Backbone:
């Protein structure tokens, strides 16, 4: 939901990173990004969490 | 959003574990671009009496030994309450919260005694009319 809010308020073309420690996010975020027709730039594991990066495309 | 896909949830239960599941599924549905109809009946409706959610710590009887641990973990992890999830879902998308008219009559509740998130009162027929096109239907 925080991702949704961030995407809603960001300008088109902006990249947004979500930090999540929820193991479900690895599946949920790409599915949502595809559904919402944004661009998924990848998941980057960090210490204890993962950084998911997307670009708002419309 | 006339041709938006729909999801219908019948919320019968009033325990926090199931309210939490319903709220997460509802907000997930909204996040995925669905129009979500949440129909509150029986104990599900009772849980939406004004301010009741603030003091509701009930969990399903068969798992009640987990209640204290679950409540503590949710507090420690700062998990938003099920009501917060629903309020947020409504802000971000299309969530309709409908109270069951028959339950309200049975328990002598009117809409002013329910949380503001409740949009409308309907019977089963009214709900089915709204939800018959739903691609996903859940009974919780």
Residues:
């Amino acid at each position: 939901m925080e991702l949704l809010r961030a995407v809603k308020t960001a300008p088109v073309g902006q990249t947004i990173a979500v930090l999540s420690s929820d193991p479900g996010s690895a599946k949920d975020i790409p599915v949502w990004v595809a559904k919402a027709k944004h661009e998924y730039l990848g998941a980057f594991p960090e210490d204890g969490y993962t950084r998911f990066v997307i670009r708002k495309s419309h | 959003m006339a041709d938006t896909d729909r999801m219908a949830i019948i919320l019968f239960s009033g325990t926090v574990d199931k309210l939490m599941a319903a709220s997460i599924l509802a907000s997930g549905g909204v996040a995925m671009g669905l129009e979500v109809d949440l129909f509150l009946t029986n104990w599900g409706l009772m849980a939406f009496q004004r301010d009741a959610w603030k003091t509701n710590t009930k969990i399903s009887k068969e798992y009640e030994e987990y209640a204290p641990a679950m409540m503590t973990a949710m507090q420690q992890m700062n998990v938003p309450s099920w009501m917060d999830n629903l309020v947020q879902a409504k802000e971000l998308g299309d969530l309709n919260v409908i109270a069951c008219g028959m339950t309200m009559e049975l328990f002598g509740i009117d809409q002013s005694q329910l949380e503001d998130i409740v949009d409308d009162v309907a019977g089963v027929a009214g709900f089915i009319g709204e939800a018959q096109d739903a691609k996903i239907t859940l009974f919780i």
